Amino acid sequence: MITLLFLFVVLNLSAFVLIGYDKYLAKNRKRRISENTLLILVVLGGTIGSGIAMLFFRHKTSKKSYLLRFWAIALIQIVVMVLYFYFLKEVHIFENYK
């Protein structure tokens, strides 16, 4: 469990830092980090860090194509977690009645 927590923190910090760094690159007209790279971190679990970074750095907040993909990934993650905990609860309920 500690390993998952550590992985979650590292992914979210990495996503936060990469969004901030991409903003820095954009301001200085340098080669940018691809949106796919940023979204891969979101898919892997860096949704919270990426979302906070977008608000904090005011970056990628007006690009509709990026936001659509970001929120689609976030919604899928929420649905998966709700279903996981719902069915986990169901399994434990049935185990108590055996």
From TrEMBL:
<keyword id="KW-0472">Membrane</keyword>
<feature type="transmembrane region" description="Helical">
    <location>
        <begin position="69"/>
        <end position="88"/>
    </location>
</feature>
<dbReference type="InterPro" id="IPR010718">
    <property type="entry name" value="DUF1294"/>
</dbReference>
<keyword id="KW-1133">Transmembrane helix</keyword>
<dbReference type="InterPro" id="IPR036259">
    <property type="entry name" value="MFS_trans_sf"/>
</dbReference>
<keyword id="KW-0812">Transmembrane</keyword>
<protein>
    <submittedName>
        <fullName>Uncharacterized membrane protein YsdA (DUF1294 family)</fullName>
    </submittedName>
</protein>
<feature type="transmembrane region" description="Helical">
    <location>
        <begin position="6"/>
        <end position="26"/>
    </location>
</feature>
<dbReference type="Pfam" id="PF06961">
    <property type="entry name" value="DUF1294"/>
</dbReference>
<feature type="transmembrane region" description="Helical">
    <location>
        <begin position="38"/>
        <end position="57"/>
    </location>
</feature>
